[in-house]
Every structure is written in C-alpha cells, then in structure tokens.
Amino acid sequence: MKTKVSILSLGAFLLLLSGCGNSEMEKRLANLERRVNQLENGNVSRGVVSTPNTNGSAQGIENNLASNASFDWETTVYNFGTIKQGEVVNYTFKFTNNGTEDLQIQSTSASCGCTVPNHTKEPIPPGGTGEIVVRFDSKGKSGQQSPVITVVANTNPRQVRLSLRGFVETNAIPVP
C-alpha cells in the first residue's frame, strides 16, 4: 500500500511541475490528491500507513490526522483581475486557528515556478492568526492564469488548496 501512495504522490508532484493555468492538469492533480487522501484515510483505520519524518524514520500518521488544529480562512481564492504581462502580484491569505491545539504548517508549495508562497513558521495557538504570503510573477505568462498553492498542516484534512485567479494581458506591439 505504501507503494501505491508513493506512486500517486510522485504523479501529483510531476503534475505540479507541469505548469500554471492548465485547468485539465488541475483537475488531474485534484483527483490524485483525493485518491492519496482516500488511501491514507482508509489505511489509517487499519493502522498500516506511515510517513517518513525529517530524519528518515517511519512515523505513524494517525496522530497527525486526529489533530484538533483547524484553519478558518478569510478567503481561499484571490482574483487579481487583469494585469499587464511582467507585473507581479502579491497577496496575503490570512487565517485563524479555530481548533483546540497549536496549528503547525509543515509546507507550502505552488503549482508552478511563477508563484512563490511563504508561510508562518511558528506554531499558531488556538485563536491565534497566521498568514501565507504569495507572490505571482506574470513574466512570460499570458491569458487566464490560475496557480494553486497547496498547504500541508497538522489539520484534518492535512491539505488545503489556495488559488489565485486572473488574466495576464500581453504587451501588444502595433503592426505598421
């Protein structure tokens, strides 16, 4: 079963590397994430799923999924409207921990290199607030854009997806 989860995780990672703004790719990624979560949740009840921690040893995820930390987002989608190609958009996603335990963000990642997320590193106590600052660089982009930021934390579910939406206009050069 660990092999299936690893293969699905690798597939999701490869899809993340394939680029921004592709709605078909986003659907596939969402489907893979859902399948991985189903496998993890199905196996946790039998106590057989484990995940590597930072020192490489196996650690059961039962406690991670049973966490009482919880995100309460102001919004999970930001529409930046229409911008000119080459402009940079910065946005801060804000949240409150409405759980009863400290909330710890393990990682944030974006669906392409055009988007860079930075998250609160310290544990967020119950009732405390945190943020994820996202920078989208439209250099080389055109048309509809919809990068996705995946947040992994000690919450249930473990992953949350944040989205930027908008349109990038190309710099048109008049034809003589």
Structure in words:
With 176 residues, this protein is an alpha+beta fold. The protein has one domain (2-169): Immunoglobulin-like. Helix content is 24%, strand content 38%. It has 3 helices and 11 strands. It has helices at residues 2-17, 23-44, 62-65; strands at residues 50-52, 58-60, 71-73, 77-84, 88-97, 105-110, 115-119, 129-137, 143-145, 148-153, 159-169. Strands 4, 6, 9, 10 and 11 form a 5-stranded mixed β-sheet that branches. Strands 3-5-8-7 form a 4-stranded antiparallel β-sheet, with no helix packed on it. Strand 10 (148-153) and strand 11 (159-169) form a beta hairpin. Helix 1 (2-17) runs antiparallel to helix 2 (23-44). The chain is elongated, with a radius of gyration of 18 Å. It starts with a helix and ends in a 7-residue tail after the last strand. Mean pLDDT is 77; it is low at 14-18 and 43-66.
